[in-house]
Automatic annotation (TrEMBL):
<feature type="domain" description="DNA topoisomerase I eukaryotic-type">
    <location>
        <begin position="176"/>
        <end position="537"/>
    </location>
</feature>
<dbReference type="GO" id="GO:0006260">
    <property type="term" value="P:DNA replication"/>
</dbReference>
<dbReference type="InterPro" id="IPR018521">
    <property type="entry name" value="TopoIB_AS"/>
</dbReference>
<dbReference type="InterPro" id="IPR014727">
    <property type="entry name" value="TopoI_cat_a/b-sub_euk"/>
</dbReference>
<dbReference type="InterPro" id="IPR025834">
    <property type="entry name" value="TopoI_C_dom"/>
</dbReference>
<dbReference type="InterPro" id="IPR051062">
    <property type="entry name" value="Topoisomerase_IB"/>
</dbReference>
<feature type="active site" description="O-(3'-phospho-DNA)-tyrosine intermediate">
    <location>
        <position position="523"/>
    </location>
</feature>
<keyword id="KW-0539">Nucleus</keyword>
<dbReference type="Pfam" id="PF02919">
    <property type="entry name" value="Topoisom_I_N"/>
</dbReference>
<dbReference type="InterPro" id="IPR008336">
    <property type="entry name" value="TopoI_DNA-bd_euk"/>
</dbReference>
<dbReference type="InterPro" id="IPR013500">
    <property type="entry name" value="TopoI_cat_euk"/>
</dbReference>
<feature type="coiled-coil region">
    <location>
        <begin position="411"/>
        <end position="511"/>
    </location>
</feature>
<dbReference type="InterPro" id="IPR013034">
    <property type="entry name" value="DNA_topo_DNA_db_N_dom1"/>
</dbReference>
<dbReference type="GO" id="GO:0006265">
    <property type="term" value="P:DNA topological change"/>
</dbReference>
<keyword id="KW-0799">Topoisomerase</keyword>
<dbReference type="GO" id="GO:0003917">
    <property type="term" value="F:DNA topoisomerase type I (single strand cut, ATP-independent) activity"/>
</dbReference>
<dbReference type="InterPro" id="IPR014711">
    <property type="entry name" value="TopoI_cat_a-hlx-sub_euk"/>
</dbReference>
Length: 565
DNA sequence: ATGGAGACTTAGAATGGCATGG
DNA sequence: CCATGCCATTCTAAGTCTCCAT
């Protein structure tokens, strides 16, 4: 499978043969490595009991808690500044799980969370954070060195011929689960992982990592068809967590490259697929029409596939196939447009998707039909799921799934926007602004949002104050009736600076709730950016930081200025 | 077909560290 | 020189999609 991608790459028109490391060693289907050796995961430190002068109070009386109960109480106390701890669901889940950790006596005493006073523990925690901030240079350096030692020992593995950085070599520490959005399990206790819970994956003939003293691993496995080094089952959702390689590794890089090659393959056949689903909108089969409408959304709006989710296990979020009637409002007429679909739903990470989209009449009519005789909570696409959709897609093109459309549309949009917005005659700052604007167009398409930075309003106000001051100064200078030639230049400069500030303000305001990083990292073929930098004579470091350059090493290595996505 | 386990990518928030300018 | 704000890194949750048993 992989060698076919390489073949495709080699045959690409105008593509230079600078593949080197990226084309060595192809394995038979499914095999990910021949040799894998590592030191196992790094475990978080043991719980340190509270000092005697820091006490927990119940109903006004000091209570010395057992070690297990105390540890969980500390988890809660540490979060007291956070809004989470005021939420009913969070508090109930926490209290229920906390009581499980208590001794019999503690359980019979502590029956009401509202009567618990974590104040001293909370204060101690804040003091610790403060002390950490105020550490001396020497202390900070010592800490840094100690951390580096841990990275040196546990942070790397040997995979075939290469020493590779591990992405997450640390076992996740215990704590209170913080889901996103209205998560029904928020506040539950995320338990401490023991070596006895951990499966190690490595070569038979490698140096098998030793479990921490007095412990043993759950299992030693030698499975070279997977890429993970260690895994354990987490207790909140019962899902498996993995220790895997860093994004800059060869293994991840090749996978990334393959992803973009599949998206480019879609480019060559997307017109055919589009005319096919336009035909399918008229199908006699309701299921086929639903599939066509879903595909229309996925293609046009870059919606996610939308797998079904188990109710009550996670926050109530949806993607395309799991949209419900309540998430869509149809408008025959809206703001001068016909056939407008108004979307309002929570997507991945409970990020709201709100959009008013004019659609073609056939889609509009179908939607109306799908919604007939349904309750708000009913599925919009009751004859469709992601499995059926992906089966259909893979029959149209090898390797095609719903998410490929997001990659394809993101990358093609970046390429188009860069061509439209940027110009070789611009100065570097202007070029970078154009690049960011192209990137922003993609982020908006993919609905990549962020919470406005906490300091946003303030930093915006500071900027606005600067602008106002500059305006006032300008007005004053201009109202001066006496013409002073020396002032002319100063006024001009002042006007330029005002413009700059205003652009900056607009830029920041536009970016208030937009996150550019996710698309840059996961959706935009880096070769587009590398080629753009070469064409525009912009240093690559201006758009990719060190770790991004490492992650995209494969693209930097092989891309010439004439690359076309 | 259906459902669940498993493996892997994608995601925003929190944290950490460093540059910059008052 | 230090506070402050910004950017990079870390963290781990939340998706997608495949495979396999029933």
């Amino acid at each position: 499978k992989y060698s076919s991608v390489i073949q495709l790459q080699k045959n690409q028109r105008g593509q230079r043969r600078r593949l080197r490391r990226w084309e060595e060693e192809k394995y038979e289907d499914g095999v990910k490595w021949r040799f894998l050796e590592h030191k196992g995961p790094y475990f978080p430190p043991e719980y340190q009991p509270l000092p005697d002068n820091v006490q927990f109070y119940y109903n006004g009386k000091a209570v010395k808690l057992s070690l297990a109960a105390e540890e969980v109480a500390v988890f809660f106390a540490q979060m007291l500044d956070h809004e989470y701890t005021t939420k009913k669901v969070f508090r109930e889940n926490f209290f229920k799980d906390w009581r499980k950790e208590m001794t019999h006596d503690e359980r019979s005493l502590i029956k009401d969370l509202d009567k618990c006073d974590f104040g001293e523990i909370h204060a101690m925690h804040k003091a610790k954070v403060e002390a950490r901030k105020n550490m001396s240079k020497e202390e900070k350096l010592a800490l840094k060195e100690a951390n580096q030692k841990i990275i040196d020992e546990f942070g790397y593995c040997l995979l075939d011929h290469h020493k590779e950085r591990i992405g997450n070599f640390k076992i996740e520490p215990p704590g209170l689960f913080r889901g996103r959005g209205e998560h029904p399990k928020q506040g539950m206790l995320k338990k401490r992982i023991q070596p006895e819970d951990v499966i190690i994956n490595c070569s038979k003939n490698s140096c098998i990592p030793a479990a921490p003293p007095g412990h043993h691993w759950k299992e030693i496995r030698c499975d070279n068809t997977v890429t993970w080094l260690a895994s354990w089952t987490e207790n909140i959702q019962g899902s498996i967590k993995y220790i895997m390689l860093n994004a800059n590794s060869k293994l991840k890089g090749e996978k990334d490259w393959e992803k973009y090659e599949i998206a480019r393959k879609l480019k060559s056949c997307v017109e055919g697929i589009r005319s096919q689903y336009h035909q399918d909108l008229k199908s006699k089969q309701m299921g086929t029409r639903q599939r066509a409408v879903a595909l229309y959304f996925i293609d046009k709006l870059a919606l996610r596939a939308g797998n079904e989710k188990e109710e009550g296990e996670t926050a109530d979020t949806v993607g395309c196939c799991s949209l419900r009637v309540e998430h869509i409002t149809l408008h025959e007429q809206l703001d001068g447009n016909e056939c407008v679909v108004e979307f309002d739903f929570l997507g991945k990470d409970s990020i709201r998707y709100y959009n008013k989209v004019p659609v073609i009449r056939k889609v509009f009519k179908n939607l109306k039909l799908f919604m007939e005789n349904k309750e708000p909570g009913d599925d919009m696409f009751d004859r469709l799921n992601t499995n059926m959709l992906n089966k259909h897609l893979s029959s149209l093109m090898m390797g095609l799934t719903a998410k490929v459309f997001r990659t394809y549309n993101a990358s093609i949009t970046l390429q188009q926007q860069l061509r439209e917005l940027s110009n070789k005659s611009e100065n570097q700052a202007e070029k970078l602004l154009s690049y960011n604007r192209a990137n922003r167009a993609v982020a908006i398409l993919c609905n990549h949002q962020r919470a406005p930075p906490k300091t946003f309003e303030q930093s915006m106000a500071t900027l606005q104050a600067k602008i106002d001051a500059r305006k006032e100064q300008l007005a004053l200078a201009k109202s001066d009736r006496v013409y002073i030639p020396r002032k002319k230049n100063a006024v001009q400069r002042s006007e330029e600076q005002l413009l700059k500030l205003e652009v900056q303000a607009t830029d920041r305001e536009e970016n208030k709730q937009i996150a550019l990083g996710t698309s840059k990292l996961n959706y935009l073929d880096p070769r587009i950016s590398v080629a753009w930098c070469k064409n525009m004579e912009v240093p690559l470091e201006k758009i990719y930081n060190k770790s991004q350059r490492d992650k995209f090493a494969w693209a930097i290595d092989m891309t010439e200025a004439d690359f076309e996505f």
